[in-house]
Amino acid sequence: MASQIASLISENIKLFSLPSIFLRLNDAINDLRSSVTDIGNIISEDQGLTVRMLKLANSPLYGFPSRIETISKAVLIIGTKQIRDLTLATSIIRVFKGIPEDFITMETFWRHSIACGVIARIIAGYRREPNVETFFTAGILHDIGRLVMYTKIPAECSNILSQVAKNPQLLFKAERERLGFDHADVGGLLLKEWKLPQNLTEAVAYHHNPDKASQYPVEAAAIHIADILAHAMQLGSSGEKYVPSLSEEAWAKLSFPTSMLPFLFKQGSQHVDIAMQIILPSEK
């Protein structure tokens, strides 16, 4: 199984490459000599990214009391690592284009992904996690392996979708039965090849099996729960027609009270619409 996924990724890593602006931003953040101004200048070179960052910073997702007018101020208030994660989340969507609509419309796919990110961010905020943007980014990336599969092994994916249509079952389980691996495995390895932080890699790789996350079980549990809730709320789809089963261990790990669910549903739906308008304005 591992060799099959590795071959799938290694043969296409140049096709699915990280945006250059994210790589430059990541290098600058890891350079102790870089200032807030240096980081802001890198983002400002991309007008579209600048607009998205400022709209996000001034949106109800943050609720800052005063308006943020410049990228430098956004970096200062939100934080450098948080800005880096937001840059990744809002830029990675441009990497994947041209997926055949026989499988999924990209607006529907990204709506589900963004919904997962928004819900995971709300859960992380309730838990007072130090970087809620990591959860937001992991949510947006959690089904990215499916896009790789739709692009590189379309015939196999088409057969799997036909199988699920005839004999209803969860899509990721059908993937595993047919191929020996699923989209979470592919996504996790892609993020590893991209040399992204392990908290993102584990959250993506184990969002259907959060108990297997050895170093970042909270991140994996949050994406697992957020994915289920996004499906239950019918906020987009990556191809899955059914609501995945809940891991009771993951729910217990998060200590998220059921009394908070009505608030999460309401705020999640509102914030998904806001995030979609900001992140995908030209795709709609």
Could you explain how this protein is built, in words?
- The structure is a single chain.
- The protein has helices at 2-10, 20-30, 36-44, 47-57, 71-78, 80-91, 106-126, 132-141, 144-152, 154-166, 171-179, 183-193, 198-205, 217-232, 248-254, 261-279.
- The protein is an all-alpha fold and 284 residues long.
- It folds into 2 domains: 2-16 and 99-279, Hypothetical protein af1432 (Orthogonal Bundle), CATH 1.10.3210.10; 17-95, no CATH class.
- α3 packs across α5, α7 packs across α14 (217-232) and α8 (132-141) crosses α14 (217-232).
- The longest helix has 21 residues, at 106-126.
- It is globular, with a radius of gyration of 18 Å.
- The mean pLDDT is 90.
State the major sheet.
Answer: none
Question: β content, as a range?
Answer: under 5%
CATH architecture of the largest domain: Orthogonal Bundle
CATH topology of the largest domain, which one? Hypothetical protein af1432
Order of helices and strands: HHHHHHHHHHHHHHHH
State the total count of DSSP E strands.
Answer: 0
Gap between N and C termini, in Å? Answer: 37 Å
Helix share of residues?
A: 55-70%
- Name of the CATH class of the largest domain: Mainly Alpha
**Structural Rg:** 18 Å
What is the H level of CATH, i.e. the homologous superfamily of the largest domain?
A: Hypothetical protein af1432
Average pLDDT over all residues: 90
Alpha-beta classification: mainly alpha
The poorly predicted ranges are none
Multimeric status of the protein: single chain
Describe the global form: globular
* H/I helix tally: 16
